[in-house]
Amino acid sequence: MKPILQIENLQTHFFTKAGVAKAVDGVSFDINAGEVVGLVGESGSGKSITGFSVMGLVDAPGRIVGGRIMFKGADIAAMSPQELQSLRGNRISMIFQDPMMTLNPVLRVETQMVEAIKAHDSTISKSEARVRARDALGLVGISAPEERMRAYPHQFSGGMRQRVSIAIAMLNRPDLIIADEPTTALDVTIQGQVIHEMQRLCEVTKTALLWITHDLAVVAGIADRICVMYAGRVVEQGPIASTISQPLHPYTRGLMGSVPSQNRRGQPLQQIDGMVPSLLNLPVGCAFQNRCSMVSDKCLSETPGPTDVGGKRLVRCVNVGQEQAS
Amino acid sequence: MKPILTVSNLSKDFIKPLDLIAKFLNKVGQDNKEEVVHAVDDVSFTVQRGEIVGIVGESGCGKSTLGRMVAGILSPTNGSVEFDSAQTKTSDLPQALQTQMIFQDPFSSLNPRKRVIDIITEAPIFHGLIARKQKNEFAAEMLQRVGLDPDTLQRYPHQFSGGQRQRIGIARALAVSPELLVCDESIAALDVSIQAQIINLFVQLRDEFTLTYLFISHDIGVIEHISDRVIVMYLGRIVETAPISSFLQTPNHPYTKALLAGVPRLEVGKREYEPVSGEIPSPLAPPTGCHFHPRCPFAIEKCQREAPVLRELSAGHFSACHLNDEAQS
Asked: Residue B314 forms beta bridges with which residues?
């Protein structure tokens, strides 16, 4: 089966006065239909910019300078703004972290939803669109959708608002949803509800999902595959179970060690010393060199390429490739 | 041993005053009432010296208000916060200095126009803990204590990253050698790898200076890792408090169980989420009886009528749930 989205060597750079920030520098991964891929990284790792690039939402001074984003066989990076517009909110949709900022505060939820349907289907009548909008709200677990549709966004609670934006994202039955930190602003019990809805919907409609987050534990619970990003590159990717149980890249290992878990109570957490390097001024060689515990001379001179370590896993580390060879 | 901190029957109400129109309508015979939020409702607990007590709960449960009252930033409507000054290192200091607070946002909690050295030394100089001449050495020592380079003393907060700024906030709190630190979501705004650094720093400081912590967080993973005892709050009330081992092994209150079940965990891997239904009710109109009953899968008729009280189940493990009474009778 052909993947629904293929990102090949994507490069999105920001041309600032201080220099060129390589926010995304050579990212490649695929998403199949019905698959959930978790894109994990710390702030500034380029995970959100990767999502924005796929949506064609990168603003100046940022630009996609290289690579291809193949969506169902067509290159998004080469599309005209009109073509992109017909894709966005229709075949690909996005869910953002803060639903208060993505919903229009002065329009009723109903108006916003009907608008989204009519934008991509000019033949549909308003009443038909309304019925579809109502059904979508019911689908994400909003009780009494008929009445709730007439409400304004501020009349919903945070979790409800996020459900509304999920409903809007699902309206045109997209092939791919990009969710950028969709549960970060929510409470634990509400986060559980939203994840539950997303899991169910993606299973039923076979929608592919790209889940962008900094929270490894959430990804571990929902994703089929995981991509770990650091300083604009995917340093490790693979199936969720084997990657979580046996992380190979020192950064992934460090990240997992930083997450408090019941098994290690009372012991100090493994910490990654130092901080993420400035994207304007990345070191030569591996970007993780100044924080890595296994750093060698080779790391200072050589930029590691993705090494296939078997089991559909790719790792960008000089040392991992060697272990495998010897 | 006597606890170092005793909080008894602490309550805080926030009152929304009537607006002009409502006042006018009251004059002509209508009866508009002021809206009252019981942010913290009759909360009592004690903390031993050197203990880390975690307070968990979702947004709006009153955990931050509670922390602010303990730190003396908010004055309580009712009840008291008592500090046992006989146990402290420097008992002649005012109580306000014994408790320091570390805030969530390291960007807005530091004055952007002050140099690090002034941020750290302002309070101890004002209270006469150090002489102005000692300023430099003192600040350098404080920075080293929290793992920052003393050469950065003359810099401004914007020249530091989030994690480093949080360390400056901790150094500022430690500068008056407090006994109790109230950490209100102190690591929530930081990246995962930086979070681990700060958590380790907290634990290390506790061991070094026998500090006592009130650690407020919505992140149960972090609370589990760091606390000796956990307090679970829901809509202004304590629903369960337990030593960490029984909190993890035998959680009693249905809300605690739901919270623990909802925590995403690395070691569990892919799974189906079975969420608690419903939303957190508005604190303006909390449900009658047990606040949790509309969302509770085990609610009985009594839960709607009567608010349950905290009852001891095992040593130090208290839970406020009617189901425990049923099981006993």
From this structure: B317
CB pairs under 8 A between A and B: 139
**Residue B85 DSSP label:** G
**Please, are residues B104 and B189 in contact by the beta-carbon 8 Å criterion?**
yes
Q: Which of A125, A147, A171 is the last residue of a domain?
A: A171
Per-residue model confidence (pLDDT) at position B89: 63
Q: What is the ipTM of this complex?
A: 0.79
A167 inside domain: yes
If pLDDT is split at 50, 70 and 90, which confidence band does A11 have? very high
Distance, in Å, from the CA atom of A50 to the CA atom of A33, rounded to the nearest integer, reads 19
Cα torsion through B42, B43, B46, B49, rounded to 10: -130
- CB atoms A196 and B264 under 8 Å: no
Within-domain flag for A311: no
Match 């038909």 to its residue by tokens: A128
Could you count the other beta carbons within 10 Å of the beta carbon of residue A318?
A: 23
E-assigned strands of B112-178? none
The strand order across the sheet containing A225-230 reads A92-95, A176-180, A208-213, A36-40, A225-230, A233-239, A313-315, A307-310
Structural domain of A113:
103-171
Number of structural domains (chain A) is: 2
Taking contacts as CB-CB distances below 8 angstroms, the residues of chain A near B218 are 187-188
- In whole angstroms, what is the distance from residue A148 CA to residue A110 CA? 9
